[in-house]
Amino acid sequence: MSRRRLIAAALIVTSRLASPAAVAAPPAGAALAPPPAEAVLAAAAKAARAEKKNVLVLFHASWCGWCRKLEAVLAAPGIAEVVGRHFVRAELTVFERGERKETENAGAETFLESVAGSDAGLPFTAVLDARTRKPIATSNLAGPGTNVGFPSKEEEVDHFVGLLRKGAPRMTSAEEAAVRAAFSPR
């Protein structure tokens, strides 16, 4: 075989192997595994360091109604801007059941335990220092097992705002008032 034919054959084989059809795709309807907790936290901490912010971590599960309620408040116009000005958010999925178990971030339960949240219930929130990834504050009101979850009582709202203030010392009075108002009963 001539050198030209050999090169042409190699190019044809290479182009077919590199085609999208040659790449194995996951079966239809199959979900990709979520990134491990370590990767989520590392990316959030890196972004937070670059932006001179801390990390706000929300532990949640698909079956948790209070989690969805907290996520909605944090995503609401005005509140999302306040949170975004002071934090890089990271969400970790834990405590899923049945078929949803595969949607958990691997290692998230271990990390939740390390910030005294394993017996606290959901949602659980922690503010982490962007450099050390150590907790600055958590949603535990008075030690392990005292999680405020979704803050609804005045003391819970005070605690939640306090944990945000610990992680965002430059938060203004107006921003604090906006966060408080978002949790006020309507």
Could you describe the 3D structure shown?
The protein has 186 residues and is of the alpha+beta class. The protein has one domain (35-183): 3-Layer(aba) Sandwich (Glutaredoxin). The chain is 44% helix and 12% strand. The chain has helices at 3-17, 37-51, 65-75, 79-86, 108-114, 154-167, 173-183; strands spanning 54-60, 87-93, 124-128, 135-138. Strands 2-1-3-4 form a four-stranded mixed β-sheet. Strand 3 (124-128) and strand 4 (135-138) form a beta hairpin. Helix 6 (154-167) packs antiparallel against helix 7 (173-183). The N and C termini lie far apart (82 Å). Mean pLDDT is 87; it is low at 5-25.
Main sheet summary: 4 strands, mixed
What fraction of residues sit in β-strands?
5-15%
Shape: globular
The CATH fourth-level homologous superfamily = Glutaredoxin
CATH class: Alpha Beta
Tally the beta strands.
Answer: 4
**Between the first and last Cα atoms, what is the distance in angstroms?**
82 Å
Give a short synopsis of this structure.
With 186 residues, the protein is α+β, with helices and mostly antiparallel strands. It has helices at residues 3-17, 37-51, 65-75, 79-86, 108-114, 154-167, 173-183; strands at 54-60, 87-93, 124-128, 135-138.
